[in-house]
Amino acid sequence: MDFGLKGKKAIVCASSRGLGRGCAMALAGEGVDVVLNGRTEETLKATADAIKSAHGVEATYVVGDIADEGIRGQLLDHAGTIDILINNAGGPPPGNYTDWDRDDWLAAIDANMLTPIDLMKAVLPSMIDRKWGRIVNITSGAVKAPIPVLGLSNGARAGLTGFVAGLSRQVADTGVTINNLLPGPFDTDRIRKTVETVAEKEGKSVDEVLTARKATNPMRRFGEADEFGAYCAFICSQHMGFVTGQNLLMDGGAYPGTL
């Protein structure tokens, strides 16, 4: 199936590893030139080199925390006109609601709500002018089924979800789609850090908690970054032009609801 993306350009935030890397790799496999972002130059360069070697597209990068306004400016200036924006950022730390003060909440909201909103505002005018664009916000399955230990993430990402519900419909007739991709448990550094917190709290080993966590999923495993990336690339494809404002869950069937 031809995704119709060859020759387009994408910004993929937080893409040196994990789910962001999976998305960048999958888009590059469809002929998309990618501009990567992350906080560590070594892993960014390795990812860019791997993409160029595997797919023969252009892969450049800007080093820095995407939640930093200056870094966002550098990334947008470096990328120029783009067709696809993949919003992604590391989630706030796990914990208990009693642990978090106002500064913790402001940091979570800034990184996981206001940062993607700022980037969407920056790229939408040119997408609308060209009557084509794809924006995918990587949020979390916790938007549909909150995870108590991830309260900061639950709140910040739910705020972004509400904003996108309105914005996506405001631009729906312009050829630009905006959707949210909600990962469940994937084998990434993020889930391992969360598991380490739970293991310490419960007095168990990390392996014990990981095994128990996998057993609760209907597929008895965690997802892989390349699976996630493939879904992300499809959402960006020419075949998804009539889908917008949706929260697309990818969690191995973990969410038990009918809707």
Count of individual helical segments: 8
Count up the domains: 2
Binned strand content: 5-15%
Please report the first level of CATH classification, the CATH class of the largest domain: Alpha Beta
Write the CATH architecture name of the largest domain: 3-Layer(aba) Sandwich
Percent of residues in helices: 40-55%
Mean pLDDT across residues: 95
- Major beta sheet summary: 7 strands, parallel
| Poorly predicted ranges | none
What string, H for helix and E for strand, traces the elements in order? EHEHEHEHEHEHHHE
Structural class designation: alpha/beta
Q: What is the strand arrangement across the widest sheet?
A: 3-2-1-4-5-6-7
* Overall radius of gyration: 18 Å
Number of strands: 7
Query: What's the N-to-C terminus distance?
Result: 29 Å
Would you give the CATH topology of the largest domain?
Answer: Rossmann fold
Q: CATH homologous superfamily name of the largest domain?
A: NAD(P)-binding Rossmann-like Domain
Shape: globular
